[in-house]
Amino acid sequence: MTHGPEHRFGEATLTVLDAAGTPLPETELVVEQTRHAFGFGNIGFDFVDLANGAGDADTEHLADLYTDVFNTATLPFYWGRFEPTRGEPDTTRLRTTAEWFRDRGIALKGHPLVWHTVQPDWLLGLPSDEVEELQRQRIRREVSGFAGVIDTWDAINEVVIMPVFDNGDNAITPLARARGRIPMVRMAFDEARAANPHATLLLNDFDLSSAYECLIEGVLEAGVHLDAIGLQTHMHQGYWGEETMLAMVDRFARYGLPLHLTETSLVSGDLMPAHIVDLNDHQVPSWPSTPEGEARQADDVERHYRSLVGHPAVEAITYWGITDAGAWLGAPIGLVRADGTPKPSYDALRRLVKEEWWLGPTTVRTDGHGQVRVRGFRGDYRAEVGGTTTAFVVDDAAAAVQIVV
Amino acid sequence: MTHGPEHRFGEATLTVLDAAGTPLPETELVVEQTRHAFGFGNIGFDFVDLANGAGDADTEHLADLYTDVFNTATLPFYWGRFEPTRGEPDTTRLRTTAEWFRDRGIALKGHPLVWHTVQPDWLLGLPSDEVEELQRQRIRREVSGFAGVIDTWDAINEVVIMPVFDNGDNAITPLARARGRIPMVRMAFDEARAANPHATLLLNDFDLSSAYECLIEGVLEAGVHLDAIGLQTHMHQGYWGEETMLAMVDRFARYGLPLHLTETSLVSGDLMPAHIVDLNDHQVPSWPSTPEGEARQADDVERHYRSLVGHPAVEAITYWGITDAGAWLGAPIGLVRADGTPKPSYDALRRLVKEEWWLGPTTVRTDGHGQVRVRGFRGDYRAEVGGTTTAFVVDDAAAAVQIVV
After folding, report:
1. pLDDT-derived band of residue A397, with 50, 70 and 90 as boundaries?
2. In B, which residues are within 8 Å of A254 by CB distance?
3. Chain B residues with CB inside 8 Å of A207's CB?
4. What DSSP line would sit under A266-332, residue for residue?
5. Hey, of A158, A207, A210, A220, which one would you mutate to test binding to chain B, going by the most B CBs within 10 A of its CB?
6. How many residue pairs bridge chain A and chain B with CB atoms within 8 Å of each other?
7. A218 with B213: Cβ contact below 8 A
8. Who is most buried in A220, B23, B88, B377, counting CB within 10 A?
9. What angle do CA B213, B214, B215 make, to 5 degrees?
10. pTM summary value
């Protein structure tokens, strides 16, 4: 059986029947988990080429490592890269990538619909009203165009800093300054919601101070419906520790909304100096992964996931990088080395996600009434008996499932 | 004439008439300013005893220094000190103090109606609903009871930190955490507004980061009407400089509301070390005023006032201390030494407020139509001609004033 925090468990009662509907007592089944309800995510940026037919053996191997652990992939929709030339969005390639993931049982998330960074140059100099209209159109285009394949979006990213961001020209900061933060959030959510009423829409930020609380409270008071609160935790300067992390999570859990740890990174090399405020300001020619760093990262990853999976408000953790190759800031934050070999952190996370918190193929036997109770981490399961495979869900509703042999 | 930034000036055209209504050409008048429209405030905490008949010569001298420069006094309504025993508020003493100031031409401001610090012990342990009701009653009692004498209030203080404040037990933090920041602001403003529809009500904070912007935007989106935004600037760690200060003011000016610099302090001794985050954490046995510190403070005060009076959105600056005696944190932030002698900062501020930005008694002469234009810092003025004194106002509406001799 699986081990883990009580609130992550669910159960289902299986009744095995013959074709005439008679319960089959003392009958063996093999049950096993096929998917976690909890979102174990990572970025899917590295697989766009592979999904579009331009992969190689190394990337295929990386994909195997990825799909063995993660059930959710964040895909890049940075406007400036997605549509560097006006009117020529990268839709086809991203759709193929999203479908590639979906076909491997991996749910998709798009990131982000509105942000002040990685903006297209062609927005610069346009009047605010036009920028706003183009931004609205872009939200509708992406969210409706990908509906059914990508149903989770960072609707708007880093709003706390948005109207005062001063690291480079962009068209969104002046718009946010003119309109205000809450109207920007409302715009993003209104457009995305209208384009896909079933989407899970997040507000996402790296600023986890009182500022984000104030923003969220303002947004909620203004009647904007958030499906989840996104919390970035890039820890290039070192793991914060369970106490600090959970105190932060508690502050945001009080809004009664699901929490997604949307962007987690932990380095397996030297830590970034603590005095650096904007992580982007730290540029080093080489930032190697080290044996000591990898041991520390493995420990950090395990503590981070264990503590957050232990918090009832957290519904997803997205790690920000599968490989060191091409990682943000050149930092060794991957779970896999640039040479394609898994780091200890990968093994530690896989052990949690696919062993300790996972029900592998397990033989169970029905009782005198033809019933057997399956308890495990909430998620998708299947049962195999007499050549018949039946899918079922384990959640906190304690479903009753009939299996006809 | 006075000198200063253009946006501070106003004018009035005086027409001098005889009793029959005939204009008197080439007639001399003496005009002079009697009050600034701009709020030059300070705390009035030191004069409660004096106003209540328990003063001494030193305090009377201090009062003379005070009333010669300041036109607005902030009085202390900290709930825990105002009503240390439930049902026994310090109303009479504070009313006498307020009237004492009013009789000296000084407008009053009450500080604060809602805050998580300096709370009465008797609130502790009461259920949230009862704390809220008592808080509402207390707002109504003070605001209606002092209406007409105190018509400006810090309706709520330091809301950014309010729900997460953890420096000592109090009944307001749990209430703010349960209700949310914006409902707390709404409560304070709704109650105060209902109790005195003519009051000027402020949100006031020391946190001038994006968090306060987010709070303000949320409050405004929620439809709460703020009369002014209060910005604290306690500079025990050194004057921030014009550039930093005005950049901050610009950020808050974009909401189109008047800005009040509600709490300014600048030390005339050693600076508090820069690493201290909560100023209350710096406790020293003795913190003397020094000659070098006094010279620096005078320079800082002049730069601070000159730059802020120069910003069109700023309508008031309240300095946080007239004397070092009993100053907050024991810091030498007063404009007057503990021995009652004015520091250079006092002289510098007086020179600005009552000389450079002030029209002293000035002889002017009507033209051929019996008219003369008076231009000066906006505020109250009077004209004396032929034994008749007439009060008039200089503002940006360019009033026409008739003076009948």
Report:
1. confident
2. 177
3. 210
4. E-SSSPPPTT-SSGGG---S-----HHHHHHHHHHHHHHHHHHHTSTTEEEEEES-SBSTT-GGG--
5. A210
6. 72
7. no
8. B377
9. 90
10. 0.93
Percent of chain A with pLDDT over 70: 100
Tokens of A398: 């304690």
Cα–chain center distance at A296 = 23
Greatest Cα pair distance, chain B, in angstroms, is 75
Name every chain A residue with its beta carbon within 8 A of the beta carbon of B254: 177
Q: What residue of B is the nearest CA neighbor of A209?
A: B211
Tell me how far apart the alpha carbons of residues B43 and B263 are, in angstroms, rounded to a whole number.
9
Task: Read off the tokens for B321.
Answer: 């201390």
**Cα–Cα dist A165/A170, whole Å:** 9
pLDDT at B2: 64
Average pLDDT, chain A: 96
For residue A251, the chain B residues in CB contact (below 8 A) are 164
Calculate the CA dihedral of residues A244, A245, A247, A248 and round it to 10 degrees.
120
Q: Which residues contact B81 (CB under 8 A, 6 or more apart)?
A: B90, B118
Q: How far apart are CA B384 and CA B84, in angstroms?
A: 50
Q: Tell me the backbone φ, ψ of residue B288, rounded to 5 degrees.
A: -75, 155
Residue of A nearest to B255 (CA): A180
Q: What pLDDT, in 10s, does the model give residues B160-173?
A: 999 999 888 999 99
Yes or no, beta carbons of B164 and A213 under 8 Å apart? yes
pLDDT at B290 over 70: yes
For CA atoms B233, B239, B240, B243, the dihedral sign is positive
Residue A2: which pLDDT band, with cuts at 50, 70 and 90? low
Beta bridge partners of B142: none
Question: Residue B211: which of A211, A222, A254 has the nearest Cβ?
Answer: A211
- Residue B187, CA atoms < 13 Å, CB-side half-sphere: 25
Give the tokens for residue A235: 């820890």
Helix H or strand E encompassing B22 = none
Q: Which distant-in-sequence residues (6+ apart) come within 8 Å of A378 by Cβ? A: A8, A9, A10, A36, A37, A38, A394, A395, A396
Q: Which residues of B touch A182 (CB under 8 A)?
A: 217-218, 221
Residues A196-205 as b/e (b if ≥16 CB within 10 A, e otherwise) read: beebbbbbbb
Nearest beta carbon to residue A218 from set B163, B209, B217: B217
Best residue of B221, B244, B275 to probe chain A, by most A CBs closer than 10 Å = B221
**Terminal Cα-to-Cα distance of chain B (whole angstroms):** 25
Matching residue, tokens 């008071």:
A221
A46 three-state secondary structure: helix
Q: Greatest CA span in chain A, whole angstroms? A: 76
Question: The tokens 């960074």 sit on which residue?
Answer: A117
Model confidence at B128: pLDDT above 50 = yes
Q: State the distance between the two ends of chain A, measured CA to CA, in whole angstroms.
A: 25
Q: Which of B182, B209, B254 comes nearest A218 by C-beta?
A: B182
Reported ipTM: 0.88
Is A126 buried (19+), middle (13-18) or exposed (0-12) by CB count in 10 A?
A: middle
Contact A217 B182 (CB under 8 A): yes
CA atoms within 13 A on the CB side of B386: 10
- C-alpha A211/C-alpha B160 separation (Å) is 8
Q: How far is A246 from chain B (nearest CA, A)?
A: 15
